[in-house]
Amino acid sequence: MIAGMKNAFQKIEQRQKQLARSAFCAWLNQVGLDQDALRFAPSMTYFVLGFRDILALAKRERSVSESVSDLDELDLAINTHCEEDREHWKWFLSDIEKLGYLNTTPEKFLFRIWSDEEQMPRRMIYHITHLIQSETDSRLILVMIECLEAAFAVFIESLKPQLVKRGFYEKLTYFGQKHDLGEQSHAMGSWIEDQAAGEKGSKSHVPHPASHEAHGDTVVARLASSPSSPELESQAARLVDSIFNHFEMLFEHWRRVALSSGGAGLPPEAIQKDRR
């Protein structure tokens, strides 16, 4: 036995920081107010809709290992998390409709999603689907979910300043405040947020809703310190690298879509009116 799964979660934190330094995040940080900062959003469609299926596959229908004393708790935490996120695709469709990206024929919209140029988001979903279906250990399923959450946190934190400057943060659902706050308040908690809360701990510190201070002894925090094995740690590390490698490719794809689409000018009229 070794100290636990902490190494896997530390690796997630390292890869999250690396992802935050991607060219896509740099572009989000510097895009001008005279440009549409969300012009890559239609390219997210397959990923967002496919993510719903990933959550369905990740749900645990029965105990799959008797070697972990709190397996039932892990399964419950995974299922609760999947339920919390399973309707978010509707928020995405609502946002891209509000932004005017659905002002085209269904044929053209579907053709774009299934075009050769949009293979990367599809391959991403296929890859994660394969990883989820190939694992039976709930501990590894939870590690993969933590990877997905950590990567999305990078995306939303990089996008948030642009939405705030434009007055869209409170008006958009998937891209805006509602989703952001929802991710912060997951019942499962987050090891990364727990660590951040501990490092920032002070009397004046207001805990992140998903932090150890807000939720106490989270399931993820307990998993990080639970007994493990070198084999399990090695497999967890491979999964972390595999998922983040694909997110780096996905982010680069979205950056290229944004640059190739031009994006000069203000967002669609619908959201401009809502802003007044």
CATH architecture: Up-down Bundle
User: What is the N-to-C order of secondary-structure elements (H for helix, E for strand)?
Assistant: HHHHHHHHHHHHHH
Strand content: under 5%
- CATH-wise, what's the superfamily? Heme oxygenase-like
Mean pLDDT: 80
Poorly predicted residue ranges: 66-71, 200-216, 263-276
Total number of helices: 14
Q: Supply the number of structural domains.
A: 1
Structural class: mainly alpha
Quaternary class: single chain
The overall strand count is 0
User: How would a crystallographer describe the biggest sheet?
Assistant: none
**Gap between N and C termini, in Å?**
61 Å
Shape: globular
Q: Give the C-level CATH assignment.
A: Mainly Alpha
The CATH topology assignment is Heme Oxygenase, Chain A
Helix percent band: 55-70%
Rg to the nearest angstrom? 19 Å
Describe the structure.
- With 276 residues, the chain is an all-alpha fold.
- The protein has a single domain, classed as Heme Oxygenase, Chain A, CATH 1.20.910.10.
- The chain is 66% helix and 0% strand.
- The chain contains 14 helices and no strands.
- α1 (6-20) packs parallel to α13, α3 runs antiparallel to α4 and α3 runs parallel beside α7.
- The protein is globular and about 50 Å long.
- It starts with 5 loop residues before the first helix and ends with a helix.
- The model is unreliable at 66-71, 200-216 and 263-276 (pLDDT under 50).
What features would you highlight for this structure?
276 residues; mainly alpha; 14 helices
